[in-house]
Design goal:
The chain is of the alpha/beta class. Among the domains are: 260-368, FAD/NAD(P)-binding domain, CATH 3.50.50; 385-557, Glycogen Phosphorylase B (Rossmann fold, 3-Layer(aba) Sandwich). The protein contains 26 helices and 14 strands. The strands form three sheets. A six-stranded parallel beta sheet has the order 11-10-9-12-13-14, sandwiched between helices. Strand 6 (331-335) and strand 7 (338-342) form a beta hairpin. The protein starts with 19 loop residues before the first helix and ends with a helix.
Length: 558
């Protein structure tokens, strides 16, 4: 029997096509929910429907910048400028992108345009001051903020930025009142809490640093910087388990300078290594790379195969130290304004790892407690024994007594880093101790500093002959092994001393995270050969240098 027309099911209405504004609203909802990728897709749909829709253009470009799709962001922003060259927000986004890409001159000009186009808005001067800080033009940055703050006294971002400039120009503790004002105005400003945590950590106020970092994390759980700060602070206190878990955030893709790797295999997550081939990738600075190599013997003893990617200068030393591993130099490249690290030797030798891991992350699985560091007082890197003998012969002819290597600064300097170093002029008490021969291990053009110290103090500082202290790291390891002590700040040659089993006397403003708290009685790890001399807050480096001089005198008489 035929169905009646009255009972027939009504056809569903055809779905209405979303407009660009619909996609923008949908994207904003995803943004509020914290789903950046879905938000970006919605903004892209809006952009394809209405390429001249300024809301879609600006939101899409911001999201592309946030997701580090910088090349695409630039293309979208170019269209935004063409669509409306008088929209100040487009230049603000472009300026932020230029700042993120370290194109500081371009960023300064773009934020200058923002100031002209929207003089009543605080963002232009705030971001200009940030660029000027990065350019180390601190007085100009502070002047700019001093002009902006009276016009916007209740804007916490301006106080926060002022604090970041003051901390570099005048000192960390001098910046705290300005951070406190930013937080009084907005107690939920996660960036200010993070900056306060960094300041407390740098001052050695670890309990305060942890509290501030945890506050920032509670306000923004995906904010990588306070998690990294919490990690290093916990490590400074010797709390390795939680500290190393938080330290993983150092490579979060939103942190400036984070590395990505070209390997296509899965990242190792700590599963048993027997039967697996593991590629270990270098990261961070040279000193960190040497320090983290403490885990290599453990991995080499358990993995089916170990492939080590390292600074090319370390290849000969690592090949000798880890004879069962395949060692090759890394190569850095840039794509989409993002740093990538490649291990070309794997392809060249037809090697296919099952997993990869950053060298710093080995500690998370192999060093959960200070007791997990094996007893290797002789170190874990093996210099060329013939070159060690060569340097011992040369040093015997250089003078009597202890042979002490000295370095006083990093080769990479800026105003913020310089506060952790000394000048050689401050070493009078140390260099004047009898019973020791001092040996330069400071690389770079430092002859004028050495000569000035010799003339001023009436001493002789031995310069090792026929060695490139920066690039010939294999021979540097042999030289350092031939020394009795290395006195150094937190620089690579200090880590090299610890790695080859030479006593390291470290001077620092606060304990470095890799000191992992105080050494335990009976500790026979390489850390046991590290003696820490801390900066005196009241009297500066002079007190520290006198303490080191007295320790040298006692050692020379022993």
């Amino acid at each position: 029997m035929a169905r009646s027309t009255a009972n027939a099911r009504k056809p569903k209405p055809l779905p209405q096509k979303r407009s660009a504004d619909d996609w923008v609203r949908r994207g904003r909802r995803h943004d509020q929910a914290g789903d950046a990728k879905k938000a970006m897709k919605c903004y892209y749909e809006a952009f394809t429907l209405a390429p001249r829709n300024m809301d879609a253009l600006k939101l899409l470009s911001r999201k592309l910048v946030h997701l580090t799709e910088r090349r695409l962001a630039i293309e979208v922003l170019e269209q935004a400028v063409a669509a409306n060259p008088d929209d100040w927000e487009v230049y603000l986004i472009l300026g932020n992108l230029a700042l993120e890409m370290r194109m500081l001159e371009a960023a300064l000009k773009l934020f200058g345009l923002v100031c002209k186009m929207k003089p009543e808005n605080f963002t232009g001067p705030n971001n200009m001051a940030t660029v000027l800080r990065e350019m180390e033009r601190f007085d100009e940055a502070i002047t700019l903020l001093q002009e902006a703050i009276p016009r916007h006294p209740t804007v916490p971002a301006l106080w926060n930025t002022l604090a970041t400039v003051v901390s570099v120009r005048d000192g960390l503790e001098e910046a705290l009142p300005f951070y406190e004002e930013a937080l009084r105005l907005d107690p939920k400003l996660a960036t200010a809490w993070s900056n306060v945590a960094r300041t407390y950590e740098a001052c050695g106020r670890f309990d305060d640093a942890m509290e501030a970092a945890r506050k920032a994390i509670s306000l923004d759980p995906e904010f990588a910087e306070p998690r990294f700060i919490l990690g290093t602070t916990l490590l400074c206190r010797g709390e390795l388990a939680e500290g190393l878990d938080q330290y993983e955030w150092r490579q979060h893709w939103r942190r400036p300078g984070a590395l990505r790797y070209t390997l296509t295999c899965d990242r190792w997550d700590g599963e048993p290594l027997p039967g697996r081939k593991l590629a270990v990738c270098s990261e961070q600075g040279l000193g960190d790379e040497i320090l983290f190599a403490t885990c290599m013997p453990d991995v080499a003893a358990t993995a089916d195969a170990l492939y080590i990617g390292c600074d090319p200068r370390l290849v000969p030393l690592y090949q000798r130290s880890f004879p069962g591993a395949v060692v090759g130099g890394h190569r850095d490249m840039s794509h989409n304004a993002q740093r990538y690290r490649d291990l070309p030797f794997l392809r060249q030798q037809g090697l296919v790892p099952d997993h990869y891991i950053e060298v710093g992350s080995l500690l998370r699985f192999l060093r959960r407690d200070i007791s997990d560091f094996p007893g290797r007082p002789e170190g874990y890197l093996v210099p060329d024994p013939e070159r060690v003998a060569h340097w011992r012969r040369e040093l015997e002819g250089a003078g009597p007594g202890l042979k002490i290597g000295i370095t006083w600064a990093s080769g990479f300097k800026n105003t913020e880093r310089n506060m952790h170093y000394t000048s050689l002029e401050q070493w009078r008490d140390i260099l004047g101790v009898d019973g020791a021969t001092f040996v330069n291990v400071q690389h770079g053009d430092c002859e004028a500093d050495l000569k000035a110290a010799e003339d001023a103090f009436g001493v002789t500082i031995h310069r090792p002959r026929a060695i490139n202290l920066k690039d010939d790291l294999d021979d540097l390891a042999a030289l350092v092994k031939a020394l009795d002590i290395v006195i150094a700040p937190t620089v690579a040659v200090g880590c090299m001393a610890m790695a080859v089993g030479t006593d390291l006397w470290l001077f620092a403003r606060r304990p470095p995270f890799w000191h992992f708290g105080r050494n335990r009685p009976g500790d026979s790890s390489p850390l046991a050969r590290t003696r820490l001399f801390l900066h005196d807050r009241e009297n500066g480096w002079a007190v520290t240098m006198r303490e080191i001089a007295e320790a040298v005198r006692e050692r020379a008489l022993a």
